[in-house]
Design brief:
Length: about 140
C-alpha cells in the first residue's frame, strides 16, 4: 500500500509496486504497461507521480518507452516467450519494420515472429526470443 506519510517518496513506493508486478510475471516482457490514467486510478496518485515512477523504472532498466505507443516491459537476455499454436492460429517470420523495431527494442533488420490468433489478435515478437509449441493434446 501507498503511505503518503512514509519515509520513501510516493513515486518510489509506486515504482516498487510496479516492479514487483513485473518481477511476478503479471506484465510479461515486451508487453505494454497499463495506461498512465489506469495506473493513476489504481494507485490513487497524481499523473506526475506515475510518470516519475515510470521514469525511475526506465532508469533502472525494467521498462523502456516508445513515443506515441506506451511503456514496455524490458526483456532480460534469457527471456523466452512460449507461443502455443492453437488450431486456427498462424505465424510467420519476417524482418521487423521500423515501428516494430522501436516497440520491441530490436536492432535494425532483426527478425520477428508474427502470430495471428484465431480471433484476429496479432502479436509481434522478436524471432530469437520465441519458442513455438503445438497445442497440448
Amino acid at each position: 500500500m501507498i503511505d503518503p506519510e512514509g519515509e520513501q517518496p510516493v513515486y518510489l513506493q509506486v515504482a516498487a509496486l510496479l516492479r514487483e508486478r513485473i518481477e511476478a510475471g503479471e506484465w510479461r516482457p515486451r508487453r505494454r504497461l497499463p495506461a498512465v490514467v489506469a495506473l493513476e486510478h489504481e494507485y490513487g496518485v497524481a499523473r506526475n507521480t506515475i510518470l516519475k515512477a515510470i521514469k525511475h523504472l526506465r532508469e533502472t532498466g525494467y521498462v523502456y518507452t516508445v513515443p506515441n505507443w506506451g511503456t514496455v516491459v524490458r526483456a532480460g537476455s534469457d527471456d523466452i516467450t512460449v507461443v502455443v499454436m492453437e488450431p486456427g492460429s498462424r505465424g510467420i517470420f519476417r524482418i521487423a519494420n521500423d515501428q516494430e523495431s522501436a516497440r520491441l527494442d530490436l536492432d535494425p533488420d532483426a527478425a520477428v515472429f508474427v502470430l495471428e490468433r484465431r480471433g484476429g489478435e496479432v502479436e509481434v515478437l522478436p524471432a530469437d526470443k520465441v519458442e513455438i509449441r503445438g497445442p497440448e493434446v
